[in-house]
Amino acid sequence: MISSIKHSPASLAHPSLLRPKTPQLNPGSASVPMIAACSSNRRSPSSLSIGPLHLKQFGFGCEPGSDRPRAASVAASAYEADRADAAVEVGPEAAAQKVKIGVYFAVWWALNVVFNIYNKKVLNAFPYPWLTSTLSLACGSLMMLVSWAVRFAEAPKTDLEFWKALAPVAVAHTIGHVAATVSMSKVAVSFTHIIKSGEPAFSVLVSRFLLGETFPVPVYLSLLPIIGGCALAAVTELNFNMIGFMGAMISNIAFVFRNIFSKRGMKGKSVSGMNYYACLSMLSLLILTPFAIAVEGPKMWAAGWQTAISEIGPNFIWWVVAQSVFYHLYNQVSYMSLDEISPLTFSIGNTMKRISVIVSSIIIFHTPVQPVNALGAAIAILGTFLYSQAKQ
């Protein structure tokens, strides 16, 4: 029986088969069964043609010339399987994230267009930008207080340091908001946004001369089309108004400082974009209200309100409510977008938003535009896009 078993010359020549060894087993080791199996295979030559062949199908077996099992291949296979599963899981998540950002951008642009349309309608019938700005902040503050009260949104956990850091941001935000509203009460919406597209130029200049920051040469070069395009649009504007022009310029400067103060003051603060803007609106409302009363006053508001109601009718009330609600919503969505995207992507989105506002306002209000004026607007917006690319 024994003589009928055929051995290969390689197996007979292996010294480990001639001198069987007793393996040193470690009771606490997880690889004891594999080592035992390998050793037993070597003591029984007949099992060489059976055992290892089956085990190697699963990545087990003994490495040639040693008692060490092939556990590395098992670990490698498991690792590759985990990577494959992770790739499958990451793919849908990345796609869902892109869809989410796309929805944010679409909603942001749509809300901004609607706000600008209703805001201009209100200002045409009720030329009191200080009260209009106050109502926008008051409506947004009330909406967020109700959302926190009914637990629709979780209220932020803030402290005194949070509000101290937010104070300069709120001052700059208040100035920028009122200045932009004053501008739109005097000139076309499209002209205000063309001038406001020059905000990157003010950002670079303020950061360079007041903060001592330096930028690459492409960033400075991108300012040339921005400044040139805004200047060309201003010179060729048919309904140019100095107050409207200065309001847009002041708004640019104020929002630049708002961004600077926001970056410095909000480091390490764990407040979501939605709640951050809600707190900003409430603090800005407290700052703006006494100034609005001092500049315009209740008597002027009452007289203007009666005139608007008599000329427009009840629809005027809807216009005021709509511009107030949509102002808060579009700003809130923009801050929510910042939680999901990089500042560069946000800057590009803001540039595209201005294009949608300019085009839609020209169509809806039938704003007369000269070809040279349109060229200036296109150059300024192109410069803003180049600036966002150069900043990267």
From TrEMBL:
Taxonomically, which superkingdom? Eukaryota
Q: Where in the cell is it found?
A: Plastid, Chloroplast membrane
Sequence intervals crossing the membrane: 101-118, 130-150, 217-236, 242-261, 273-292, 312-330
Membrane topology reported for the UniProt record: Multi-pass membrane protein
Q: Where do the Sugar phosphate transporter domain residues begin and end? A: 100-388
Fetch the Pfam families from UniProt.
Answer: TPT
Record-level GO BP terms: monocarboxylic acid transport
State the UniProt keywords alphabetically: Chloroplast, Membrane, Plastid, Transit peptide, Transmembrane, Transmembrane helix, Transport
Q: Which GO terms describe its molecular function?
A: carboxylic acid transmembrane transporter activity; organophosphate ester transmembrane transporter activity
Annotated region (Disordered) at 1-28
Cellular component, GO annotation: chloroplast membrane
Protein name (record) = Glucose-6-phosphate/phosphate translocator 1, chloroplastic-like
